[in-house]
Amino acid sequence: MKAFLIAAVLTVVAGLVSRLLGGVILGAPALLLAAIAWICFLVSPVTILVKSRTNGADFYEYGVEIKSGFVRRSIQFVWYYQITEAPTYVRSFADYFTNTASLRIHYNPSATTVERVEIAGFGSPDEVKWIGGYLESRVPPERIVIRGPWT
Fold it and tell me: Where are the transmembrane segments (predicted)?
């Protein structure tokens, strides 16, 4: 997504500079700028597609295995009892291009810390909402925040 935005900005800047100079070709710098913009523009759909296919999660009876990354691959296992609050549904600007959504999970790996992990762009928005509800139902009752008439 960053490559797509960079390509769009570079294309607009090159067009404005060309217009300001009265349509005069800037030579090698303008051609280099245009080539970089087009390369970024052509590569961005591929990177969005690869990112949406490499991120994911496998759900087991007692926990979830979160996979992310392509070059720097990471696989992390989170037990359901470690989840400290309800999962958060996240949808960024890049997710609209691939019709995906993300899920943010807060968990505590030790007794004194709380960390956050995000399952980025791994399913359609409806699937992610359903999985978020499933994960929330798997959290033990003592982890759920007590809500009363005062909140």
Answer: 29-50
Per residue in 50-80, pLDDT tens? 766 777 788 888 888 888 877 788 888 988 8
Q: For 24, what's the count of Cα atoms within 13 Å in the CB-facing half-sphere?
A: 4
The domain segmentation of the chain, as residue ranges, is 2-51, 55-143
Sheet of strand 63-68, all strands in order from the earlier edge strand to the far edge: 56-59, 63-68, 74-79
- On whether the 55-143 domain is CATH 2.40.50, my answer is no
Burial of residue 102 (number of CB atoms within 10 Å: 0-12, 13-18, 19+): buried
